[in-house]
Amino acid sequence: MTPGLTPVEFLYGINSSVSDDSRFYEPPRVVQFRITKKTPKRIYYVRRERIPGDIEIGYVNRQQIEADGEIYNHGAGGWWAPDFHLYLTPPALTQAQKPSLAELKSAMAAAHPDRGGTDEAFIAARARYERARTQETTR
Q: Stretch 31-35: mean pLDDT, rounded?
């Protein structure tokens, strides 16, 4: 390593690309926030850089994030901000698997009152099936 150069460190967040319009859905992805300074109490990082040189700096409690490995950053502006929930190491993203329409339809049929199910169970199973069917046709 060249003398005088320090390795670049990062905090990690999740960009879930929240949008009211499902046509523009993007799956969640891990984003990096470059650490600019560490003090005994805080870790400062680049929240965003709109154009080169125009950066916005954020900070988190160093003791808490080093003890827990993650921190909720209420100074980020809101739950939708990628740096609202920060991690020391890249988090693993798990996507819920889409339900199979065939499985939901058979569960709905099994919950039908004519087959020994209850009204409430059938209504709930039908709602799950209709929700999945609607989501599949809108994508």
A: 94
